[in-house]
Amino acid sequence: MDIPKLFSLDGKVALVTGGSRGIGRMIVEGFLGAGCARVYISARKVEQLEATVAELGDKVIAIPGDVGTVEGCRALAEAIGAKEEKLDILVNNAGAAWGAEFENFPEQGWDKVMDVNVKGPFFLTQALHGLLKAAGSMDSPAKVINIGSIDGRKLNPWETYSYQASKAAILHLTKRMAARLIEDGIVVTAIAPGAYQSDMNKAARDFGDAVAKGIPARRIGEPEDMAGAAIYLASRAGDYVIGSTVTVDGGIVDAGLPHNSIDPS
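RESULT FIELD:
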């Protein structure tokens, strides 16, 4: 058994939405280290994309876009299709969050989060279906990895209603998509991250030591933890994992400890 080959992404082409920072960037760096030929990254903020490309090198290609609309998903897919005949790996990582008290939670905070976190992954995958089919087969499937959250598996103490609902939805949607797309040689899975330093998770970013006290592993997640999970699912090693969610949280959910209650604002 060739273990390095088992986890290799040599020659693969990937797209990571929200790939310029946070968890998306961790995954991008992991894919590069595992041998990806090219990793496309997309986000709304051009300056962040350009900075990431400058730091990571010419194997990273930036395409600005907004996956919160069907039109944006189709435009991004069209841009990828103009450059590639197939796409081996799609990571639906772009995300949005909104917090407000129940009595004042706005419709905008519901629609924006659901559009980016649930509608976006579905319609981007749909728009890229042809490129994924061209790359995949039963012997060597293409991969779609949806980035959820432990907040889709376990309540947190914050009033982030649409975020928590969206992350539960994407984990179930992963199963439904997986059941259909395996017919086309495309494996769909999900990752549910716990606490990692990012602009979205301000608690882990700004109060990492305090957050770590509520985690069985006694630390917040590191880039290698997220990269390792994504490489596993994207590589030959993960070919037989279909529709499942890999929880990468240091034990918060499945060790039964309560979510830490540090205010992320």
